[in-house]
Amino acid sequence: MKVEARVADIYRILFGAAPNTKSVMLELWRDQHIEYLTHGLRHLGPAFHVLDANRPWLCYWMVHPLALLDEVLDDDLEDDIVDFLARCQDKDGGYGGGPGQLPHLATTYAAVNTLVTIGSERALSSINRDYLYKFMLRMKDESGAFRMHDGGEIDVRASYTAISVASLVNILDVELAKGVGDYIARCQTYEGGIAGEPHAEAHGGYTFCGLAALILLNEAEKLDLPCLIDWVAFRQGVECGFQGRTNKLVDGCYSFWQGAAIALTQKLVMIIDEQLKLSYSCKKPSGEDACGTSSSGCTSEKSSSAVDYAKFGFDFIQRSNQIGPLFHNIALQQYILLCAQVLEGGLRDKPGKNRDHYHSCYCLSGLSVSQYSAMTDSDSCPLPQHVLGPYSNLLEPIHPLYNVVLDKYHTAYEFFSQE
Ligand SMILES: CC(C)=CCC/C(C)=C/CC/C(C)=C/COP(=O)(O)OP(=O)(O)O
Ligand SMILES: [Zn+2]
Q1: With 90 as the cut, is the pLDDT of residue 181 above it?
Q2: Could you say which of 95, 160, 206, 254 is catalytic?
Q3: Whose C-alpha lies nearest to ligand 1, atom 20?
Q4: Catalytic residue, candidates 87, 248, 302, 311
């Protein structure tokens, strides 16, 4: 069935009437989303008191989707956000949920990703990397895994947020990396996905976290990747969106958590394949990072962040070469545009739910991932057939390991390489 006919059917089921015009139903309502997000940065009502310990997250959930929409913030507003996050930074390193609150790895990730997205010298240099490193070492358990805060819980989120931040600001070293990969591998379940902690249930949020952390650590071979790929691929439902775990409802935010996990495995498979071909003419690969977009080539020195492709084994590579796209990228865009958008601006979990900043951030991140998912060459733009609706729906590409806009990642990479 043609995509337009299928979209019209879904629209009829959801809204009980035929759509007015094709363009309205498939359009990304940019202006409304920009208005909702920028308004939130300037004013949040009393209902947001419950999120008092998540204020750096609120910054990230608004600043990042605005960057995806290529919306430039006022200089004053950017400076206010940088000043506010500086007040959340603990004197002994890391960021708390608000000024004076205990430092926490999740809010540290949100603060650092926000500052990288703002991308100014002022924003990037406000991060105290020496103390951040000490904070991270303090969060490390003797098993190698990380806890979220002093005396806090150990889980896969903590491992991902620590490794992502350390990698982004260029403080990742052997000491921080030791033992993390083994902990994450212990969280992969019999289903194939990754759970929050050993012996728990596989979930899309943790699957993204575990996979991205292992790729950053160059230890993805510690996972049973074919099994992980099967699990994620089967999480896309007949509604076209993704569910977070088996037998649960689809939800717009998993467009990113599951969609990016698939995008990462697809890139990994592609890189392994390319490197295997290259390995006939030279021994060792190099690259900026396993899933970054820089071109990889041959050097005699092994880069610390390059993937050792031989580790993945012949069976995995054979099988990977036989599989096509691992998810239906147009169907996912259909779910986001038709079911997750709110007419007044902002995005949501599913029809019947309210919009919120978290879902706006992760639905738009998932939309970007799905628009660029069929690309093999990172220097060009997606073909129109991979962007559902008008081509003006196209968002900025992200770096799928960190979930920051790719250009912003490159600026931060340059900045922190010189530190
Ligand atoms: C970087 C970082 C902090 C990542 C967090 C990743 C993430 C989203 C984890 C999911 C946590 C979880 C078990 C949700 C289940 O909620 P639910 O039972 O309401 O939803 P469900 O029915 O869809 O499973
Ligand atoms: Zn959700």
Answers
A1: yes
A2: 254
A3: 244
A4: 248
